[in-house]
């Protein structure tokens, strides 16, 4: 799917979510809350960078179809420098792995507009989750299990 088409789908999903018409299942795996000593490190340009990874799976049924979308963010930190990159995947329903290598055949060319739509959807879903309205379930996975 092209980024513009996916962005339009996300706009529609956001509208329907605001109306309370969709039920979402979110799954999250992140190293963000771990101590730096537990995180992976790489050396680039002679500097050691601490890596944070975050996978987020969005799932809902919409117009009789199952929608599964997975986002990935890699954040590299060295002192006060931060570099990040984002990926978006549209895998089939049976491919729900938080592994970039496994998901790579399902990558979508993500641009700033598409990433913004995912961020808007995420914020909206977190708002619904906090309200405990029953439209959003959230499962958190340990990144090292």
Spell the H/E element sequence.
Answer: HEEEEEHEHE
Ends: how far apart? Answer: 32 Å
- How many DSSP helices? 3
Unreliable sequence segments: none
**Percentage of residues in helical conformation:** 25-40%
Radius of gyration, CA atoms, in whole angstroms: 16 Å
Q: Provide the residue-averaged pLDDT.
A: 93
Main sheet specs: 7 strands, mixed
Percentage of β-strand residues: 35-45%
**Total number of strands:** 7
Account of the protein in words:
The protein has helices at residues 3-18, 100-103, 112-131, and strands at residues 24-30, 41-44, 47-62, 65-78, 81-89, 107-108, 136-141. The longest helix has 20 residues, at 112-131. Helix 1 (3-18) runs parallel beside helix 3 (112-131). The model has no long low-confidence stretch (mean pLDDT 93). It has 145 residues and is of the alpha+beta class. The two termini are 32 Å apart.
